[in-house]
Design a protein that fits this description.
87 residues; mainly alpha; Helicase, Ruva Protein, domain 3; two-stranded antiparallel sheet; 4 helices; 2 strands; 52% helix; 6% strand
Length: 87
């Protein structure tokens, strides 16, 4: 969603997604898990992605930071869930 957010001129690249995935895996491992949970991704997203954004000048003049933008995007993003299928 970083590519369509109003305050962002240029969003995170696919390498940003890869970096977030690897950081989330490391974070989970440090916390004794061999799997990533959504909270890992939510926590790390501002740290991993904020510096990868180019904000619009208007946003910079208003004092908006990349961390704030990522935090807003994460807050409005729903966590995917798996539904049971009747087979």
């Amino acid at each position: 969603q970083t590519r369509s957010y109003s305050s962002i001129q240029l969003g995170a690249s696919p390498r940003g997604s890869i970096a977030l995935m690897k950081a989330s895996q490391a974070y989970a491992f440090i916390h004794g898990r061999n799997y990533v949970i959504p909270d890992d991704v939510k926590f790390l997203a501002p740290y991993v992605l904020a510096h990868r954004l180019i904000l619009k000048m208007e946003a910079k003049f208003e004092g908006i930071t990349g961390e704030q933008v990522i935090a807003k995007i994460v807050a409005r993003t729903t966590v995917p869930t798996q539904r049971k299928m009747n087979l």
